[in-house]
């Protein structure tokens, strides 16, 4: 992963233009919130209540009685099995978000829809996605690399529908999908190699659609990132610009920093401090060593900067709760 603070952003970033969108949140902050991790690499407790680990991400967001699934993990049945093992009923969740096209975030979509619709025909029937998620991505071998394209038609055959969002959109009171996050800072939190097929011709695939969910909650913003390919600092700054200009109460999910250099982590930590980040639950591609370094550099503690595991959670007013191994 290449990075210099002074580097010029690649041409592909033009696919996500700077936006004139201004602060939009004008409703009362969310007062009850819980985020539960359903897919990530670490399993922090023993069976039968520990779940299954994988290279993937999924989390359930619950706010004031509303429930939203964010990403669906990698393997077809991981989230399904983990939810059952943890006693989480996903049949009452009608809507979900896919943060970007990669298969480690979209792999469980079809199985979850098929199984949950047996209990509730509307379960997981609406997918909110950022604009550009359906663009073709060709790998070095010329094969399609967009993990969502092979399953799109089957999901729609099952009665599901996709809604694309080019700008921030309020999914429910105080809960926002950010839309494609502009690349203001020169973060390269993505793995190079793919080629994005655009009307203007092939370009480097920097996952231009990458998005996150931001909640305007009591005490500050809670931001859930799938991989943070747009850059976790770009994402948090954009959340403050478009949702509410308040400190970040919690940053949760994947930040794609597992291969970050010391210089990258020091820069990221300085920005996190400036944003007023109070708690970090770093799962998936954040990286264990990266999380520990950020904890130290930002000035957080073992209670407020934690490696995310299956069944880790963040509860507004209580903080981060994790299985024993992740503490």
Please report which band the strand proportion falls in: under 5%, 5-15%, 15-25%, 25-35%, 35-45% or over 45%. Answer: 15-25%
Shape: globular
Q: State the end-to-end distance.
A: 28 Å
The biggest sheet, with number of strands, parallel, antiparallel or mixed sense and barrel status, is: 8 strands, mixed
Compressed to H and E, one letter per element, the order equals: EEEHEHHEEHEEEEEEEHEHEHEEE
How does the helix and strand content classify structurally? alpha/beta
User: Which strand order does the major sheet show?
Assistant: 7-5-4-3-2-1-17-18
Detail the poorly predicted runs.
1-23
Tally of strands: 18
What is the residue-mean pLDDT, rounded to a whole number? Answer: 91
Number of helices: 7
- Helical residue percent? 10-25%
Structural notes for this entry:
By secondary structure, this protein is an alpha/beta fold. 20% of the residues lie in helices and 24% in strands. An 8-stranded mixed sheet has the order 7-5-4-3-2-1-17-18. It has a 7-stranded mixed sheet with strand order 8-9-12-13-14-15-16, covered by helices on one side. A 3-stranded antiparallel sheet has the order 6-10-11, with no helix packed on it. Helix 6 (262-274) packs across helix 7 (288-298). It is globular, with a radius of gyration of 18 Å.
């Amino acid at each position: 992963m290449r990075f210099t603070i002074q580097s010029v952003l690649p041409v592909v970033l033009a696919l996500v233009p700077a936006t004139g969108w201004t602060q939009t949140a004008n409703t009362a902050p969310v007062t009850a919130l819980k985020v539960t991790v359903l897919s990530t690499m670490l399993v922090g407790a023993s069976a039968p209540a520990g779940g299954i680990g994988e290279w993937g991400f999924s989390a359930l967001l619950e706010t004031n009685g509303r429930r939203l699934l964010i990403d669906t993990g990698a393997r077809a049945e991981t989230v399904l099995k983990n939810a059952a093992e943890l006693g989480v009923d996903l049949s009452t969740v009608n809507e979900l978000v896919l943060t970007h096209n990669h298969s480690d975030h979209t792999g469980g979509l079809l199985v979850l829809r098929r199984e949950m619709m047996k209990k509730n025909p509307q379960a997981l029937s609406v997918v909110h996605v950022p604009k550009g998620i359906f663009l073709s991505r060709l790998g070095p071998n010329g094969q399609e690399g967009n993990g969502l394209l092979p399953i799109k038609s089957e999901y729609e055959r099952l009665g599901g529908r996709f809604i694309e969002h080019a700008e921030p959109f309020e999914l429910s009171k105080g809960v926002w999908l950010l839309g494609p996050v502009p690349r203001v800072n020169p973060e390269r939190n993505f793995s190079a190699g793919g080629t994005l097929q655009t009307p203007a011709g092939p370009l480097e695939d920097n996952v231009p659609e990458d998005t996150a969910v931001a909640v305007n909650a009591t005490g500050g913003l809670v931001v859930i990132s799938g991989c943070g390919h747009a850059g976790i600092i770009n994402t948090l700054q954009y959340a403050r610009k478009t949702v509410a200009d308040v400190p970040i109460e919690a940053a949760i999910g994947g930040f794609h920093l597992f291969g970050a250099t010391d210089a990258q982590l020091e820069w990221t930590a300085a920005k996190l401090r400036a944003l007023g980040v109070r708690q970090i639950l770093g799962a998936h591609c954040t990286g264990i060593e990266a999380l520990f370094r950020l904890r130290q550099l930002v000035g957080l503690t073992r209670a407020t900067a934690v490696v995310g595991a299956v069944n880790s959670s963040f509860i507004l007013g209580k903080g981060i709760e994790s299985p024993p191994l992740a503490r």
